[in-house]
Each structure stands twice: as C-alpha cells, then as structure tokens.
Amino acid sequence: MNRLTTLFQHKTADVLNVYFTAGFPQLTDTVPILHALQEAGTDLVEIGMPYSDPVADGETIQKSNQQALDNGMTVATLFEQLQGVRQQGVTVPILLMGYLNPVVQFGIEKFCQQCQATGVDGVILPDLPLEVYEREYKALFAKHGLQVVFLVTPQTSPARVRQLDGLADGFIYLVAAAGTTGAQTDMNADVDAYLSRTKAMGLRNPTLVGFGISDAASFAAASRHTTGAIIGSAFIRLLQNTPAQGQATAIKEFVAGIRP
Amino acid sequence: MTITAPSPYRVDASGYYGPFGGAYVPEMLYPNVEELRDNYLKIIEDPEFQSEFKQLLRDFAGRPTPLFLAQRLSAEIGTTIYLKREDLCHTGAHKINNTIGQILVAQQLGKKRIVAETGAGQHGVATATVCALMGLECIVYMGAIDIERQKPNVDRMRMLGAKVVPATSGSQTLKDATNEAMRHWISNPTDTHYIIGSVVGPHPYPDMVARFQSIISAETISQLLEQTGRATPDFVLACVGGGSNAAGAFYHYLDEPGVRLIAAEAAGQGVDTGHSAATTALGKPGILHGASTILMQTEDGQVTEPYSISAGLDYPGIGPQHAQLFATGRAEFISITDKAALDAAFQLSRLEGIIPALETAHALACLPLIGAKKDDVVVVCLSGRGDKDLATYTKHLEEYS
Ligand SMILES: Cc1ncc(COP(=O)(O)O)c(C=O)c1O
C-alpha cells in the first residue's frame, strides 16, 4: 500500500511534514538529510526539485533552489540519489514537490517510472492546472502508485475546495495565509477561522497546513484543526546556518523541538 | 470577411492557441486569474467600457497615431515603408494602449492597487501614468540591472508617484521582475490587480492584452486604405519581447495569409554566443510565467538567463500566441543582433528624424532581410521612441560619426 495511505490510517493528528530542497546545502546532502529526518521522527518528507523561477516561493526557498542548481542538482540526479534508499531502510513517505517545467522536460512518463522505481509516494506540482492533471496526468500517476496533493488557500472557493478534495488522494495542503513560502504567518484569528471552516467541510483527505510554520507554537496552533503541518523555510534556514558536521544532530534537535 | 472556421491563431474557449497558452498558475493565483477570465470579455465588450477606453486612447494617449510614409528610408532600402508611429503615444510607446485598458478593467473589478513588472521601463511608466490618472496605488518591479540601464524611466515612474522595487533575484532583468510581481500578487490577492505588460502570462492575459493592442492594426487598416487605396500591406514588421506590439500590429491580419508577418527577436551578441534573447531560435516548448509557450531553457528545464542590449527584449520567452504563429509558420521570426539594431537606430534617426527605441530598432533591422520589392507595402510598428536609450546610443556615437 502507498506509504501515505498507511501513515494517515495510523496517524490522524500532529503529523509533521518537513520540506527540504534536493541538493542543498551540498549536492550530496539529499539522502543524509532524508535519513536524519526519519530518525528524528518526521512523519513524511517533501523533497523540493529546484527550479530557476519558483514564483510561489519566498526568498529562503528561492535561494536554496538557486544554490541547489548551482551545485548541479537536476531531476535526473535526484532520482540517482534516491536509487536504493528504500533498500537502505528509509520507510518514511516521500513526496516530490516542484514546478512543472523541469518535470515536463524530463518527460512525464519517465518521471512517473522513476518515482515508482525509487519509492516516491506522491507529488506536489503547484502550477499543474487541474484540467491538465485530469486529462493527461491522473491515469499515469495512478498507474505508478503516485498520490497527488493539491493546494488550497484562504481564497479558494468552497466549490473548488470540494473539487480539489475529490481529485486529491494524498492530502490537502492548506496554505495558511495569502503569500509565498516563508512569509511570517502569525497564527491569528483569521487563520484559525479559515482552518476551522475548512475542518467543518469534512474533507475526505487529511489536511496539512503549510507556509509560515516554523516552531512548536505555530505547529501546535496550525494542527489544532488539521491532521498536521508542514515546515519548509524554517528548516531550510536551519540547514543554511548549520556547519556540515553538525547537520544530523541539528536536524534531530529541530524536529524534536517542534513537538515537545 | 466571413469567418468560417475558428482561427488557429486566436485563443480558443479553453485559453489555448494550439498547444500553447493555458493558465499554469499555483492555487494562490487561481481565484485572481479565474476572476479575470470569467469577467474580461464581459467587461471589455461593454459599450460603456469601449467608449471610455476609446476616449482615453484619443484624449489622453493621443490616438490615432499617424501612419507615416518614410520616403528616404524607403529609397535607401528599396521598398515602400510606412511607420506606425506608436512612439508618438503619450509616454512614448505602445504600452499605454494596454495599461489604459487594464486600469479600466481593474476599476470594474473594484481593485485598489496595481502591481506591474517592467523591463525597459516603458510599461512601468505607462502603468504609473494611468495609476496617477485614476488615483490608484502603483508598485512596479524592475530588474536591478534594468534600473541601471533605463534610469530616465525609473525617475519618470517616481515622478508619477509609483513605488519602484528592484528585483534582485536571478538575472535581475524582466523575467525576475515578472516573478516578483507575481509573488506580490500572491501576497495581495484580493485588492490588487496585476497589469502584465505584454501578451504573456496565464490566460486570459495574452488575449486581453492583444485585444487592447489591436487598435494598432485597426488604425493601420483605415490609414493604409486612405493613403494607398489598399487595406492590407505585403509585410508587417514588429519586434517581439513578450510580443504585445507585434500582437497588436498583427491582430487584424492574422487570418489574411497574403500579409507576411515578420517578428524581430533579439539575438544579443549573436544567436550562438550564449548572450542572446532569440527565443524561437534557441528555445523549445515549456512553461513560463503561467503559460505553455516557447522558452529558452537548459536541457533540465531551467529557464536560461537571456541577454539583449535592449531591456524590453531581454526575456527568455514569448507570448503563447507568438509561439503558435511560429510553430505554424504563420509568422517569420528573424534574430537581430545588438549591432544590427544599433545600425538601424542610427539609420532611422538620420534618414527620417526619428530616434527609435532600441526594441523597435530590431524591427527596423529586418527591413533589408525580408526581400521586399520596390512596390511592396511594408508597415513597421514603430513601437517606441528612443529617449530612454540615449545613454546607450551616446556610447556608440563615435562609431556612427
Ligand atoms: C518601445 C518598446 N517596444 C517593444 C517592447 C517589447 O515589448 P512587446 O514585445 O510586448 O511589445 C518594449 C518593452 O519594453 C518597448 O518599450
């Protein structure tokens, strides 16, 4: 069974998803970070495929994308790195997140095959239009056991939330507030209202909140009405500021600090 | 003209031009783009909107712009050249046709703030101008490099009350300014309208901007008829950054196969030098700024940093309609080097007393290359004037003395 399905069957609250950019800070950091996150108890990981023009991302993730590209990271290299991780004991569900163009240039069919071969469980392609997904990608993803995650924002209409929920099969990614990744979202009354409003819709998919979640307080506030939350920019900042030899320890402390 | 089948060159009901176009935007932008998509035709086809739009084009922008028979240039090249004088529009380029249209759309949608990107600064100035006119707050993103090389336009925007924000990511030119403007829109989704400056971006932008720029070819038809007795030229030439002046100059001729459409793109230092912005020569299909189009990219799908002497052509993509015109062969794309553009700019200045924008000079540089005969009628879209480029021109004055 897909590892995401298994995860959400067993865990319905306080699920922690950590995002990091493949090939950052060093090209070969991808797999060690993956191992460290699993050992630290992260429930699932989202690996970003770097892109030159990440319009939905704030400065922190933009810079990590650029650095990863400068390091030579590509979609092909990422799959080479992920080759064999499942045999090496990585059991945590893995999502690949990225903008559509590099995936399209890699070849969508080949991309799906490689996902399956390396044990990737799902994908987030934020600029993939829903109708293109339905027409060209849905059957292909299903054939290769890939689940798909869609984003929902406070501005998404209820009808569209239903539509996205109907088509998603991994989880629904709730963007906490209007903005790009890394924006300082204080978990204020507006965000709380939006999250509880979404909860009241009784979606069929689990929900994880992202954008602006950075510590134990924001994680707890975000998870109150949802299945859990996603940490991205704060984790990238940690990687940025940690010397290579202290990376594994720093990751463990960081993850432990989110759910004390 | 009776239209029997849908034109392969115009947008279809799903927002595509053949395989190009669409709206590849993250969910954060979906409601904004959907709002625009669902309302733009209703708004712009409304007779009241049309009369206000036309009145502003006339009384504020100074339309119609003349169609000028360039006799000395014609003699030099050996054909019959008419210049569609968009350089005489208020603010000095065709860009104002679009910003007037879009500011009226923004008002209809109840938006309070405007965000825009700019390359050469012409679109930024045109946006700042209409924002001042309508009393709306205006934020313009501009690549840090472009801020340096188009200084006069930065000062004009500030004079008009706009906030100019440098885009410091990536190549620090138009592509990155567009990214920043999109991010700004993502962060301000309800009260802000994004005035895109060319026929790029997610559907409905390419179609909406083309409609606003179509006034260029609409006027050309009647002016040409009056001056030559024929409504259709043999050639229409325009430069393509994103492609808005070309889209407007081509618009009413798209389905007239007798009119050869010529698009000039920037070869920079040369198509094969690695310092170029010649999108069709160097690019392949991909997705950029919300549209499926042709773009310059690496084998891995990373967008390549373009180069051109002209800030307005320094963009790694083209609008999806142009991608379709290229793919179908309806338009011919010619790459023009920095040097050839400079030659053409000095030539026009000295033969006709018109200093063109560097962007426009790329279109002029095509004139000797298209095989036009003496009696052929060639219309060049003179998209803008060269005041903003004087610093660049001055550097080359010696070579042309
Ligand atoms: C005078 C002039 N012409 C052409 C362009 C290129 O834009 P487009 O291809 O959208 O007409 C610009 C852009 O700044 C410009 O200022």
Could you explain the architecture of this structure?
- The complex is a heterodimer of chains A (260) and B (401).
- In chain A, strands 5-4-3-2-1-9-8-7-6 form a nine-stranded parallel sheet.
- Chain A has 260 residues and is an alpha/beta fold.
- Chain A has a single domain (3-258), classed as Alpha-Beta Barrel (TIM Barrel), CATH 3.20.20.
- Helices cover 47% and strands 14% of the residues of chain A.
- The mean pLDDT of chain A is 96.
- Chain B is of the alpha/beta class.
- Chain B is 41% helix and 17% strand.
- Chain B is built from 16 helices and 14 strands.
- Chain B has helices spanning 30-45, 47-59, 71-77, 95-108, 122-134, 144-149, 151-159, 174-187, 205-213, 215-228, 244-250, 279-282, 320-328, 338-352, 358-364, 390-395; strands at 16-17, 20-21, 67-69, 80-84, 113-118, 137-143, 163-167, 192-194, 235-239, 260-268, 284-288, 291-295, 331-337, 377-381.
- Chain B has a six-stranded mixed sheet, sandwiched between helices. A four-stranded parallel sheet of chain B has the order 7-6-5-8, sandwiched between helices. In chain B, strands 1-2 form a two-stranded antiparallel sheet.
- In chain B, helix 4 (95-108) runs parallel beside helix 5 (122-134), helix 4 (95-108) packs across helix 9 and helix 9 crosses helix 11 (244-250).
- The longest helix of chain B is centred in the first third of the chain and has 16 residues, at 30-45.
- The radius of gyration of chain B is 19 Å and the shape is globular.
- Chains A and B meet through helix 3, helix 5 and strand 6 of A and helix 8 and strand 11 of B.
- Pyridoxal-5'-phosphate (PLP) is lined by residues 93, 119-120, 122-123, 198, 239-245, 312-313, 357, 359-360, 383-384 of chain B.
